[in-house]
Amino acid sequence: KPDGELLTFKKGAFVLAKKADVTLQPISIWGAHEIMPPQRDKRIQRVKRGHIVVTVHDPIHPAEYEPLSVEELSNLIRSRIESGMFLESERE
Q1: pTM score above 0.90
Q2: Residue 60 resides in a domain
């Protein structure tokens, strides 16, 4: 969202991840909402000077999430991503 808040996760990616039995890599990106504010004309994106922080969290291996439901997996990924965003928002 424009204010930096995470939107609701769609479950399809997590269904596919469980079926594919792949390692998941949560990543937090903080600050993009400030340097790339919403524009009326989506064809032209104005970028402001600013600072973006990308946090690569510990990977989540299939053995860790295999017993979880799709919803629980979604919540796990969301909590990891939010933790990185929260830490950065506290620094501001």
Answers
A1: no
A2: yes
pLDDT of residue 90: 57
Residue 67 lies in a domain: yes
At residue 20, does pLDDT exceed 80?
yes
Inter-residue contact 47 to 35 (CB < 8 Å): yes
Tell me the chain's radius of gyration from C-alpha atoms: 15
Asked whether residue 57 carries a pLDDT value surpassing 90, the answer given is yes
Domain count, the chain: 1
DSSP E strands in 1-92: the ranges are: 27-30, 53-56
Q: Greatest CA span in the chain, whole angstroms? A: 45
Tokens read off for 9? 């996760």
> Tokens in use for 48?
């402001």
In sign, the C-alpha dihedral spanning 54, 55, 60, 61 is positive
Q: What are 11's two structure tokens?
A: 């479950």
- Asked if the structure places residue 73 within a domain, the reply is yes
Between 89 and 62, the more confident residue is 62
